[in-house]
Design a protein that fits this description.
Organism: Flavobacterium aquicola
Protein name: DoxX-like protein
Number of helices: 5
Oligomer: single chain
Strand content: under 5%
Mean pLDDT: 93
Order of helices and strands: HHHHH
Structural class: mainly alpha
Number of domains: 1
Shape: globular
Number of strands: 0
Keywords: Membrane, Transmembrane, Transmembrane helix
Largest sheet: none
């Protein structure tokens, strides 16, 4: 279990760090999109603050996963991001579903792995 947790945590951490750095330093070309996904993407870009905030959260959580510090907190903070990544790809960009599903299920696996840290949150 420890090996699987370390593996998943490292892969997701690398993925989150690389995607956020690519956003901040414009390392990837803009993907050609169309239809509803393009309209959604333009709305995110037009909001000015939302994408930088999400990418900053991804960067901080990715660093946390890679260093192994504050992983319990990062699991909770990145959960809404991973849910949105999954839903965006499910409804608007079906080509990205495998990667989105990996991030979401990996996040759930990490929450399960660190469940002992969350138990006190669910006590009355």
């Amino acid at each position: 279990m420890k090996t699987a947790t370390l593996f998943i945590r490292t892969i997701i951490g690398i993925l989150l760090v690389l995607v956020s750095l690519a956003y901040f330093f414009n390392l990837m070309p803009d993907l050609s999109t169309s239809g509803d996904f393009k309209a959604f993407q333009l709305g995110l870009i037009s909001s000015v603050y939302l994408m930088p905030m999400v990418k900053a959260i991804e960067l901080l959580c990715g660093i946390s996963y890679l260093t192994g510090k504050y992983v319990t907190l990062s699991n909770i903070v990145v959960l809404p991001v991973s849910i949105n990544i999954l839903f965006i790809n499910f409804f608007l960009n079906p080509n990205g579903i495998p990667l989105a599903l990996f991030v979401f299920l990996g996040n759930l696996f990490l929450i399960y792995s660190y469940w002992k840290n969350y138990k006190s949150l669910f006590k009355a």
